[in-house]
Amino acid sequence: QVQLAESGGGSVQAGGSLRLSCAVSGNIQRFNTMGWYRQSPGKQRELVADITTAGYTGNEEFVEYVDSVKGRFTISKDNVKSTVDLQMDSLKSDDTGVYYCILRQSGIVTWGQGTQVTVSS
User: Fold this and answer.
1) 2, 3, 27, 116: which sits with the fewest CB atoms below 10 Å from its CB?
2) pLDDT of 14 strictly over 90
3) Longest Cα separation, the chain
4) pLDDT tens digits, residue range 78-106?
5) Is residue 115 within 8 Å of residue 96, measured between CB atoms?
6) First-residue to last-residue Cα distance in the chain
7) Quick check: helix, strand or coil at residue 9?
8) Comparing C-alpha atoms, which of 35, 31, 29, 21 is closest to residue 2?
């Protein structure tokens, strides 16, 4: 069993910053993907950013971002603490939505409960 606990959502004006954090507990495998999805009003849930731990010794990381957040958002992962953070800068109203932390390992995806991010223009 794996559990994900998100924190850090809130309301901010356009141009501001927020930092989301996700703590993962339970049976965590060395090779996995941790990241963030979001559900914006009237839109489908989309990947925002994720990090995949791979390589022979688990020392390689592959990062991907949706185009709309490149240069503004930074994802980071701490394999010792089993946390994944999302630093969001230069926020826009289009970034408004519910942000979900995810863990994918052995083909199984576990979702957090979501945290609301509201950006006012």
Assistant:
1) 27
2) yes
3) 46
4) 988 999 999 999 999 999 999 999 999 99
5) no
6) 40
7) coil
8) 29
- How far from 83 is each of 11, 13, 42, 77, 92, CA to CA, in Å? 23, 26, 29, 6, 25
**Are residues 4 and 110 in contact, defined by beta-carbon separation less than 8 angstroms?**
yes
Buried b (16+ CB within 10 A) or exposed e, 20-40: bbbbbeeeeeeebbbbbbbeb
Residues 6 or more apart whose CB falls under 8 angstroms from that of 108 comprise none
Q: What is the DSSP string of 46-61?
A: EEEEEEEEESTTS-EE
CA 64 to chain centre: 11
Among the listed residues 83, 72, 74, 85, the one whose alpha carbon sits nearest the alpha carbon of residue 119: 72
Residue type, 112: G
Per-residue model confidence as pLDDT tens digits over 23-81:
999 988 888 899 999 999 899 999 999 999 887 776 788 999 999 999 999 999 998 89
